[in-house]
Write a structure and sequence with these properties.
Layout lengths: L1 H40 L1 H4 L3 E3 L5 E4 L56 H18 L26 E2 L1 H6 L1 H7 L4 H10 L1 E2 L10 E3 H17 L4
Antiparallel strand pairs: 1-2, 3-5, 4-5
Helix pairs in contact: 5-6
Length: 229
């Protein structure tokens, strides 16, 4: 009996020591080591790939897209897009939160609907009609055949921060008109913020919407302070 109690006590003490050692190693030392290495080697990525505006305020992340919407009006289920800004790809995964009112991760993922799904086809048709209407101006009409796929479909993650150069260029006339800027000036802004293929052959050219809108805001602010005449 005494041997049984003693063996049980030794086993419990051995288990407790293993628990304490593993807690310290795996729960304290290892996370601290990984965090320290990340902060030294990749500080930007380790801290969320944050993007700052001209004033130094963090306004988003390099790797997560965000929406640019007007405040929700009474009776509206979803907010209307703020057409002063370049718009991202459609996504149901971007919303608002109390930390950054421009974006939050609500969900991530595609619709998983097949290409011949009637609901998806109608959704794309409606989205294309909205893109044509929103981006046509008094002196420029967008043609339905000029609307690229990324203007009416979400990415696989639903959180893509980039759009194609074609979609960015399609929005130029509307953005220029809303911000009282020359079309050529906004076209140059898009060109300056178009990234080529990685290493020249991987992926496709792309435009980071948030970085483009930060530059647009700076340009529009400078334009507003220019003397008239």
């Amino acid at each position: 009996m005494n041997n049984s109690v003693g063996n049980t006590g030794r086993a419990l003490w051995a288990g407790l020591r293993a628990l304490l050692v593993l807690t310290v190693v795996c729960g304290v030392l290892y996370p601290l080591a990984v965090t320290g290495i990340a902060q030294v080697a990749f500080p930007g990525k380790a801290n969320g790939s944050e993007i700052e505006d001209a004033s130094g305020k963090v306004v988003g992340s390099e790797v997560i897209g965000q929406r640019y919407d007007l405040p929700v009006k009474d009776g509206e289920e979803t907010p209307a897009p703020d057409l002063r800004w370049f718009q991202p790809r459609p996504s149901n995964g971007l919303g608002t939160n109390s930390v950054n009112t421009q974006y939050s991760i609500v969900l991530s993922g595609a619709t998983n609907r097949s290409g011949d799904n009637a609901g998806l086809i109608q959704w794309v048709k409606d989205a294309k009609a909205a893109v044509v209407e929103d981006n046509s101006t008094a002196d420029h009409t967008v043609k339905p055949e000029d609307v690229p796929a990324d203007a009416v479909t979400s990415s696989g993650s639903g959180l893509d921060p980039h759009i194609s150069p074609e979609y960015a260029k399609l929005q130029v006339h509307r953005v220029a008109e809303r911000n009282k800027l020359d079309v050529a000036t906004v076209e140059k802004l898009v060109a300056d913020h178009t990234d080529g293929r990685i290493l020249g052959f991987i992926g496709e050219p792309r435009v980071h919407v948030l970085r483009l809108n930060i530059a647009l805001k700076e340009l529009a602010t400078r334009r507003a302070t220019w003397p008239s005449g």
